[in-house]
Amino acid sequence: MDANARKKQVLIINAAPMFREFVKEKLSSENVSAEIADGRLDAFSKMVRVIPDLIIIDIEESFEEVMDLLERKMSDPNAKRIPVIISGPEMERAQISSLVQYGVVKYFSKPIKFDVFFEAIGKIIRANLAMDTTPCVLEIHHNGNVIFVEIAQGLNREKISLLKYKISEMIDNYKIKEPKLIVMMTNLQLSFVDGINVELLLDTVTADERIQKRNIKILSLDNYMSDFIDGHLEYVGVKVLKDLTSALGSIVGAGKAAGDATEIIADSILAGDENDAASSVDIRFGAESGEGDGMGTEGSLLNIAIVDDDEIVRKILAQSFQSIGITVEAFDSGVKFAQAIQTKNFDLAVLDIYMQGVNGFDILNQLRAREKPIPVIVYSQAVQREYVIQALSLGAKGYLAKPQKPEVILKKAMEILHDRV
Predict the structure, then answer these.
(1) Are 43 and 69 in contact (CB under 8 A)?
(2) What residues contact 220, with CB distance under 8 A and at least 6 apart?
(3) How far apart are the first and last CA of the chain?
(4) Which of 202, 204, 306, 371 is deepest in the core (most CB within 10 A)?
(5) Are 415 and 393 in contact (CB under 8 A)?
(6) Environment class of residue 191 by beta-carbon count within 10 Å: exposed (0-12), middle (13-18) or buried (19+)?
(7) At residue 255, does pLDDT exceed 60?
């Protein structure tokens, strides 16, 4: 990497403390500068001063305030070109699509799948954000003043890092006094190769000073965990136990007889309390939920078709659109595209004229007959005046002669989509 290359910059706006600190920590570890802004005035001031590579907006309450900020963004000639990712509550696709005109390229409904989220950030700012792909299921819930963490399958560094903020958030949200922690990881077999991840886990569960180390119990059948803790002075007080009865007896049911263990387990773990449904947090990533290959269409606002029998043109345009987080489907013939539009919806198509079988004019005729025509940019070597007139008369929104720089096609596409919204 060029030592003189500008450090990538991301502006995080109006995010909840857990979200912004976790995202900032992850980006900083990848040498990406992350700045925090709260409120419209602070956000707009930093937006025009920093001119970041990406803006991330987290919607907690007021969507109107976000819209006002986006309107101000578009009024500034420098800020208007900055891509935006928004995270927020589930919304109708039509409402999400209305955000395109403000430079919003991704919308993530909560709860966020962070592997997909960071992959999207990396593509937009053109930075390789490394993600730990170790299979891991990590769940956290509470009962009274006891927080239960269960880890299965493996130790994933991204999830462990997020856990630190989840624990603190849970203590704050439920006003837990004298919080106690039980970490259950009985099905994990550990060895010295797991040392760096075990250390991260222990640093995570001991990070919040409101949890005294003597109130942290780790349920593990593996001798490596107890040996690891015994060898580190900073974890003095943390206890490793081999069965749940002992853990509960030492932290939950102090003073109760051993015969009460079943009741303690039922009351403290299985039954939960009146807020159990709200306090249960399942930390999972998109790749583990059977929803595609990681990126898929998660958070995508746009789906664009590229129809061209030139493989190089298809690849160049696909990479250009995907680099700003847009989903692309490429077709090497008009026939395949004509078949696809029978069952799929596209927000825009980039179309060649010269193709075997079904040519560009045939496609324009088909699209024109639809109730909701797909906006089309014709991108072709056909530069005759009559061809241009014919394409525009058939509904094409733009006509660009080959070859052009990819930025030219991107700019034209965004102009058309903005006008459409």
Answers:
(1) yes
(2) 185, 186, 188, 190, 226, 240, 241, 242
(3) 40
(4) 306
(5) no
(6) exposed
(7) no
Identity of the residue numbered 407: E
Model confidence band, residue 287 (pLDDT cutoffs 50, 70, 90) = low
The identity of residue 73, as a single letter, is K
Q: Which two tokens stand for residue 143?
A: 């009962």
Q: Residue 252: pLDDT above 60?
A: no
Burial 90-115 (b: 16+ CB within 10 A, else e): ebeeeebbebbebbbbbbbeeebbbb
Q: What is the CA radius of gyration of the chain?
A: 27
Confidence of residue 275 (pLDDT cuts 50, 70, 90): very low
Task: Say what the pTM is.
Answer: 0.65
pLDDT tens digit sequence for 301-343: 678 999 999 888 898 898 888 877 788 999 999 999 999 998 8
Residues 155-185: pLDDT tens digits?
A: 999 999 999 999 998 999 889 999 999 898 8
**pLDDT greater than 70 at residue 259:** no
Cα distance between residue 380 and residue 321, in whole Å: 18
pLDDT confidence of residue 299: 52
Selected residue with higher pLDDT from 148 and 286: 148
Joined tokens for residue 381: 């070597």
| Distance separating alpha carbons of residues 278 and 168, to the nearest angstrom | 16
